[in-house]
Design a protein that fits this description.
Layout: E1 6-17, E2 23-35, H1 39-46, H2 54-73, H3 83-98
Antiparallel strand pairs: 1-2
């Protein structure tokens, strides 16, 4: 049975405080991505890893998901020849600590 795909939209906005204490907002980038993982659930699970701040769990989950996707879609890229195997080992370690029973590769 194929898992239901979830669609996400990422929008990165740079926020700079001006001299008059107003914040200037500028969109830096935006993109869509999808997968069967529930990002919010993954963040909640990641909190048990002992991050010092809640935002670090969020950053960690997004970084892991993005890196996994990039390596998977670019597996023939020499840049990932050595790192891909190391990342997979690290990902498995994280999954075992979180009790994730996902069977995706």
């Amino acid at each position: 049975m194929e898992k239901q795909k979830k669609f996400y939209y990422v929008n990165v906005v740079e926020a700079n405080r001006k001299d008059d204490d107003k914040i200037k907002m500028a969109e830096v980038l935006d993109f869509n991505f999808r997968g069967h993982h529930d990002i919010a659930e993954m963040v909640e699970r990641a909190k048990v890893l002992g991050f010092s701040k809640d935002k670090h769990a969020k950053e960690f989950v997004l970084a892991m998901r993005f890196m996994h996707h990039v390596i998977k879609k670019n597996s023939d890229n020499a840049l990932f020849a050595d790192f891909g195997q190391q990342f997979e080992a690290f990902k498995e370690k994280v999954r075992s600590q979180l009790g994730c029973n996902c069977d995706c590769k």
